[in-house]
Amino acid sequence: MNNQFHAYGKNSIRKQNLEKRMLQTIFFPNKWNFHYFFNMMKDCQQFIIACISEIDHSWIIKLLVLLANAGRKIYLIMDCKEDQKNDELFQAVICELLIESQFKIKIVVNTTKYESLPTNFCVIDGKVLITTSANWTINSFNKSHEWMMLDKKYDNIVQMIEIFEQMWNQFKFVTFINEDIALLDYDDSQFQPVFTYSQDCVVDTL
User: Fold this and answer.
1) Which of 196, 119, 110 is nearest to 160 (CA)?
2) Residue 6 domain flag
3) How many CB atoms lie within 10 A of CB 188?
4) Residue 83 has pLDDT above 60, yes or no
5) Average pLDDT of span 114-135
6) Is 134:98 a contact under the CB 8 Å cutoff?
7) How sure is the predictor about 116, in pLDDT bands with cuts at 50, 70 and 90?
8) How many structural domains are present in the chain?
9) Residue 11 falls within a domain, yes or no?
């Protein structure tokens, strides 16, 4: 009986340790935590899907462009309120992401007047889900008190990929027409089908 309790205790500890490894929370501002997150993105081998309200961090923008030009698939959902459409910083970010990646990066934007994106999250290679209070901005990582949860649980990753796909189809594609930013309806988009990669990449890599 004692041996059974001992074995049960060891198995329980192993399970707890495994769950801890599957879930990890880091906080900002913290330069080491930022580098840890940045290197996770840098190590991407297949794709990044990200639902992030705002992006202006130059390191992250340049990394996304490099990854896209190296053959990684990058899909971004961002907010675009009425006052942002003519905002110079927003336009500069969109221009750099699209033009520097030769339109390999795909972007849709939420233009709903009174509703922001429900949460910030991204999935890297179908191996890790990152949910976070932080936007990918200099202010979020350097000045604000933010958190980031790293989740490697299979079911959670698949669920968020499915949610991302549903959200993607509701929003406006971003492209350029005659050197101006244009927002296209899903049915009019030249980028269909967007998620043909998902069955090949996500299922195989998990």
Assistant:
1) 119
2) no
3) 11
4) yes
5) 90
6) no
7) confident
8) 1
9) no
Range of the domain at 45: 25-205
Angle, in degrees to the nearest 10, between helices 154-168 and 197-205: 170
Is 79 strand, coil or helix? strand
| pLDDT digit string, tens, across residues 31-59 | 999 999 999 999 999 999 999 999 999 99
pLDDT of 78 higher than 80 = yes
For residue 1, tell me if it sits in a domain: no
The tokens for 93 are 């970010």
**Residue, of 100 and 184, whose pLDDT is higher:** 100
Residue at 14 is within a domain: no
Query: What global pTM score does this model have?
Result: 0.81
Supply the CATH number for residue 41's domain: 3.30.870.10
Q: How far from 116 is each of 20, 78, 80, 110, 171, CA to CA, in Å?
A: 31, 9, 9, 7, 12
